[in-house]
């Protein structure tokens, strides 16, 4: 009754799983390494966040510490810049890199950066799509109804689209971050290079998620075709 048992298409996901493990390891190691090295400017994540926001004429974003490690995010609805406690209070190169990246998202939001708008707009449909995809595909295969199976695949493609739109948003935030840190004089050139390494590692985790989504889509396409063959 469970058609995915012994499903050989799982093999397709292996490259994405390996990349995800590699990226996660790199994020941890680069973050830990550059968390030990204080920036010469001596400013904390929270101080740099405030300074960067103000120099971009953003005065309505609150900066708040949150629990956990690498849990930093910008919340566009509440207009809050959430910095993990280690980053909020830290003067390290890693902390300033992460801080400037999150400020990058706040600037994207304030300036109406198009990919961020698209991303926010497709969040709800992408969630519905990824929740419905597997049940529909399974139903299609069980009923031998390829149309239903393909609707499942189409639903999943919304989740893939979300991952794809996330990439420019993340890369752009990191590029803005690195530039702002150097132009503003918060980091010197050699320090910027180190902060960049942390952000590049983080970007790789988004690449891994996107690759996973694309390969999953490929896998679902194959499975939905298999549903058709079974009927013949
Ligand atoms: Zn980000």
Describe the structure.
- With 232 residues, this protein is mainly alpha-helical.
- The protein has one domain.
- It is 72% helix and 6% strand.
- The chain contains seven helices and three strands, in the order H-H-E-E-E-H-H-H-H-H.
- The protein has helices at residues 14-35, 45-55, 85-88, 93-110, 114-143, 146-183, 189-231, and strands at 62-66, 73-75, 80-84.
- The chain has a three-stranded mixed beta sheet.
- Strand 2 (73-75) and strand 3 (80-84) form a beta hairpin.
- The longest helix is centred in the C-terminal third of the chain and has 43 residues, at 189-231.
- The chain is elongated, with a radius of gyration of 21 Å.
- The site of zinc ion has 4 residues, from helix 4 and helix 6.
Small-molecule components bound: zinc ion
**Number of DSSP E strands:** 3
The biggest sheet, with number of strands, parallel, antiparallel or mixed sense and barrel status, is: 3 strands, mixed
Distance between the termini: 19 Å
Based on CA inertia axes, which overall geometry fits? elongated
N to C succession of SSEs: HHEEEHHHHH
How many structurally independent domains?
1
Q: Total helix count?
A: 7
Output the radius of gyration.
21 Å
Strand arrangement, major sheet: 1-3-2
Q: What do the pLDDT scores average to?
A: 93
> How would you classify the helix and strand content by structural class?
mainly alpha
Beta-strand residue percentage: 5-15%
Question: Low-confidence spans: pLDDT under 50, at least 5 residues?
Answer: none
The share of residues in helices is over 70%
